[in-house]
Structures are given as structure tokens and as C-alpha cells.
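The following record pairs a protein chain with its ligand, zinc ion.
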Amino acid sequence: MIKIGIRALGLGLLIAVVWSNAPAQPQQAKRWYKGNLHTHTTMSDGDMPPDYVANWYKEHGYNFLVLSDHNVLTPIAELNGVLAEPEKYLLIPGEEVTTSLDKRPVHINAYGVDQVIKPFQGNEMHEHIQANMNLIRKAGALPALNHPNFQWALQSKDLLAVENLPLIEVYNGHPAVNNRGGGGFESLEQMWDTLLTARKKVFGIAVDDAHNYKKFDKTMSNPGRGWVVVRASSLGRKEIMDGIAAGDFYSSTGVELQELETSAKGIRLKVKQAGTVKYTTEFIGARGKVLALAHGADAAYALKRSDQYVRAVVHGSNGDDAWVQPAARP
Ligand SMILES: [Zn+2]
Ligand SMILES: [Zn+2]
């Protein structure tokens, strides 16, 4: 059976076709929604107020935005009253639960939170992370571990002891966060594979962590660098949160997907061609091993018996990337 979803992003409409082996029955068509999950305003250390920031993202074609100021819940009800539009734009409440332990920063975002979360101070790193994540879960929100390589604070060994970590940043647009690792420190993608190889069910997100809206250059943490594209039945807070929690999304710094199917059988995708950009898709498995490479806009990988999981990264020749969530056998 063929499900057809209509995608409305930025300019124009795209048709996304998803092949599925589900029994033939009417299914609610799902759409793709682009959003940024990590954003600062003058409510903490951002340089523009919430209304300016919320407007910036709306004007740049985003469908949803989480304002995630440090240890404060930036009010969004009034902003949504002015800016929210059905199926077009929505603000979702958030907080960056910001702590440190032994001078190592531990920042955990809370998505869909309604009350400010007072951080917990632990003595051991795994206990500290776990307790703050649990507080976020208890508040009915979804936690994400932010920029582990910021000040080289966290390594995968700190995260392996944490249970039920649903999301980790694999790309953060802030210039000081060391996404690529180096000098013996894992990249964020390598950390992700370490966790996946240890059979942690964790999805990878790309975010802006935007602070600077006045001056744009590579020393600034500007908006528009990393985002997620979530598949949901409508642009509602619950629908978007459910899509993220289920891993029904991809992360991007510019590569746009036209089709994406992830199932227990593997991954199939089609890139939306941008200009003359050339695409290479890496299919990556346990311990970060590259299982296969595909050139061009179409790429597919069928899970083999020997594969624990497969995830895909699409590299554009222009430097843009997209990260597809892992597929694994049940
Ligand atoms: Zn942070
Ligand atoms: Zn931040």
C-alpha cells in the first residue's frame, strides 16, 4: 500500500510518498513540520526579546519553535496568540535546565514543559544527569541532552549509565560546542553510535542553540543552522512531541528529504534536489561502521541479520547534512 503525505515547507508543496507494509486501510495523511528545538532570548542570555525571536523563525519558514531559556520558562501564551497559525506556526514551551557538576556544564532541554523545573544538584555525574532527566519526565516533558562536548564536559561513558535518555544533540549550531570532537574525544555522532551500540534507544537532533540575532558570522550563535523535520498528523503541541518521542523525524543543517521510510526492514529515502548539489548517503551501523554508501538523491538500505541497527546521514557537496533516525529489528 502507498501512503501519501503532503509536505508544506517554505516555498511550495511537496508530495512525500511512503511505502508501507501495513494492511490496506485508510490512514490519516501525515505532514512534515520544520522546527528548532533550542533557542535563547533576553529571558536568559540571548540578545533579542522573545517576540523578535519567535518572529524571526516564523518569517524564515519554520513551523514550530521551542524557546529554551536557561532555568526559566519563557512565557509563550501571548506570543502564540499573536503568531500561531493553524498548520503554519506554533510555539512550544521549553526550558534549558542548566547545571554544572565539578565545573562540567550539564544542560538538559525540557520540551513541552508547563512549569519551571528547578534543577537538581547531584554528586555523581550519572546520578546528576539521571535526576534532572527524571524531573523533566515527571513534569510531563521530553528531555534532550545538549552539547556534550561543550567545555568537553560529558563523554559517552557518562551517558551509558543513564536510563531512558530519549534525545541527544548530534549537531548544535553554537560555535563553542565541538560537535566534531577531536584530540581523542568522540564527535557527537560517535557518542550517538556508542549509545546505540549499547542498545540505548536514543534519537539524534540538530538544533540552533541560537543566542545572537543582531550580528551574523561564524563566531556568533545565529539562528537557522540546525533543525528537525517532524512527521505528524497536524501542527499541535502533542502531535509534534509524539512525533519526536517516536523518532518520526530527521535532523538537518540544510539537506531536505522528499521521501523517508524507516522501518524494521531498513531505511529508504529520497533527497529533494537543491541546485547542482551532489549527495552521498552513508548508512551507519553499530560502533559507527559504515555499512554502505549511496550516491545520488535515492538511497536505500535493507537491514541484514548481522546488523544491530542502521542509521543514515546524507552529505551534500555544499556542506549541508541530514541525519535519519536509526532503524532496527524489533
Ligand atoms: Zn547549553
Ligand atoms: Zn542553549
